[in-house]
Design goal:
Layout: H1 2-18, H2 25-53, E1 66-71, H3 79-92, E2 97-101, H4 114-122, E3 127-130, H5 134-143, E4 148-152, E5 164-170, E6 198-202, H6 204-207, H7 209-222, E7 228-240, E8 248-249, E9 257-262, H8 268-276, E10 280-286, H9 295-307, E11 312-316, H10 317-323, E12 333-344, H11 346-362
Parallel strand pairs: 1-4, 1-5, 2-3, 2-4, 5-6, 6-7, 9-10, 9-11, 11-12
Antiparallel strand pairs: 7-8, 7-12
Helix pairs in contact: 4-10
Length: about 375
């Protein structure tokens, strides 16, 4: 356990170095080394895509229509709530969607991770399949009655043929710090966005008209005619993690002194959302993405939050699935539920989803 904690502390330190939040000779040297490594990473990304595009490595066709939802960066675009939105929409149209996921950092290989557990709680009848081999996952989904597959985090997963490629871009920080891994959070160069069939700009409400307009202009030059959809993630409720207490409308965060903590790849959006609701964030703590919480973790957060004068703890719905088994803390603990709201292009988006599904079925 101590070794795992040390490794997590090291990972968070390196993330802060690459995010330019650490200063000094040591971090400067690490950033220089990471910049060199990112050139090799970029070369590998270009080569891999070239091999697929020229048929050197073959894509495989699954037994279901596949709609891919992914991003260019390592997390932070709101992919999970958007996948939930698509799954709900398909279900309302009498489809039986299945989510195909890698199961990244699940407690046990081949089982659901926190994101899939959250989706299962939101949509109890939804089929989720955790398997790094997405073709095998697609076959299993078909056997279990699914009629359409949602490829979660699928933009870089080129092995499985897809019928619609949806790329999410966070309008508040579209390409991280502009560097590729390991210097930044980009998984591949930004101009690879041209592979997308549809680009969805997320968090447009927090970005403002200027940055959204600049992104639209850039995308139009990169791929003339590419459809660009705009969406926001609207806070709905604060729900108590235990049976004690009642749900609170998100609007009632206004004026409250809250302690925020989360295990996200990019937690900035969570803090911005709370502040946009009028909350005063007096304490915040970041854990490694997909962190497995312990009672000691929660106790430390409670102690530090109480010392900072917080009246309540707030975390994400994704984190809640890993916290609900722990003893109830002394401070009230809530998780924030959010919903995807498409503000521009919703009819076109669903027309393209319908076209992808029907085209596969006709073929």
């Amino acid at each position: 356990m101590a070794r795992e904690s040390t490794l997590e502390d090291l990972e968070l330190f390196l993330l802060e170095v690459m995010e330019d939040r650490r200063r000094g000779p040591g971090p400067d040297v690490l950033r220089a080394l990471a910049t060199g490594a990112s050139w090799f990473f970029a070369g590998g990304a270009h080569l891999r895509i070239w091999l697929y595009e020229h048929g050197v490595i073959k894509r495989r066709r699954g037994p279901l229509p596949v709609i891919s939802v992914g991003n260019l960066t390592a997390g932070g675009t709101g992919k999970t709530p958007f996948v939930s939105y698509i799954a709900r929409g398909l279900s309302s149209q009498n489809h039986k969607p299945a989510i195909l996921a890698r199961g990244y950092r699940a407690r046990t290989k081949g089982t659901a991770n926190d994101e899939l557990l959250m989706l299962s709680r939101q949509l109890p009848d939804l089929l989720t399949v955790a398997n790094p081999n997405r073709l095998s996952g697609c076959m299993r989904a078909r056997e279990e009655g699914a009629d359409v597959a949602l490829l979660d985090d699928g933009f870089q997963h080129l092995a499985l043929e897809r019928d619609l490629d949806i790329l999410l871009v966070d309008a508040t920080r579209p390409f991280g710090n502009g560097y590729l891994l390991p210097r930044g959070t980009l998984r591949e160069p930004a101009d690879h966005a041209r592979r997308a069939d549809i680009v969805v700009l997320t968090r447009v409400d927090l970005a403002g008209l200027g940055p959204v307009g600049e992104l639209r202009t850039w995308l139009g030059r990169l791929k003339p005619g590419v459809p660009v959809i705009e969406c926001s993630f609207r806070p709905r409720q604060l729900r108590p993690l235990t049976d004690r207490g009642e749900a609170i409308p998100a609007e009632e965060l206004s004026g409250r002194r809250v302690a925020a903590f989360a295990a996200l790849a990019s937690p900035r959006g969570f803090g911005r959302t709370l502040r946009a609701q009028g909350a005063t964030v007096v304490y915040s703590r970041r854990f490694r993405d997909h962190h497995n919480y312990s009672a000691a973790d929660l106790a430390a957060v409670v102690g530090e939050a109480g010392a900072a004068g917080a009246e309540m703890l707030v975390t994400t719905e994704k984190d809640a699935v890993k916290l609900e088994e722990l003893p109830a803390p002394d401070l009230p603990l809530y998780y924030l539920t959010i919903e995807t709201e498409v503000e521009n292009g919703e009819d076109f988006l669903w027309a393209e989803v319908g076209r992808a599904v029907s085209s596969f079925n006709r073929g």
